[in-house]
Amino acid sequence: MEIKPILLDTNAYTAFKRNVSDAVEVINNTPLIGLNSVILGELLGGFAVGTKEAINRDELKQFLSIEKVKVFVIDNETAEYYAMVYRGLRTKGNPIPTNDMWIASTALQHNLSLFSYDKHFQAVNRLVTGTCLSDLMVK
């Protein structure tokens, strides 16, 4: 079995930087690690209000330079996925934060599993989510 390419949620990046073993295992074993501008914005926003902004920015820059890390652009097609996610969640009466709908939409658009510790992503139709390597394996 192999691990599917992932979209790395903000909290999963933070767990990786804190050396959480499951996060390190996923990052080390996945063939492709995606982020989007929403995730980058959340990270940079957190850095801006923290006490180690320069260090955190430098570490993120180094992380983004890794060959298997890719930043996905949010485009018109992503917006179509967003509309689908929004409709599905609204129909269920189960909204999630707007930023997280953009994150889910990017994962769906690019056929990525979402590595996140936020359980509310499980409400998104067709989105594969996980918090450890076994959750993210191709079945």
Describe this structure in words.
The structure is a single chain. With 139 residues, this protein is α/β, with parallel strands linked by helices. The chain has one domain (2-138): Rossmann fold (3-Layer(aba) Sandwich). Helix content is 51%, strand content 12%. The chain contains six helices and five strands. The chain has a five-stranded parallel beta sheet with strand order 3-2-1-4-5. The longest helix is centred in the middle third of the chain and has 17 residues, at 76-92. The chain is globular and about 40 Å long. The chain starts with 5 loop residues before the first strand and ends in a 9-residue tail after the last strand. 32% of the residues are buried. The mean pLDDT is 97.
Overview features:
globular; Rossmann fold; 12% strand; 6 helices; 139 residues; alpha/beta; five-stranded parallel β-sheet
Q: Nutshell version of this structure?
A:
With 139 residues, the chain is α/β, with parallel strands linked by helices. It is 51% helix and 12% strand. It has a single domain, classed as Rossmann fold (3-Layer(aba) Sandwich), CATH 3.40.50.
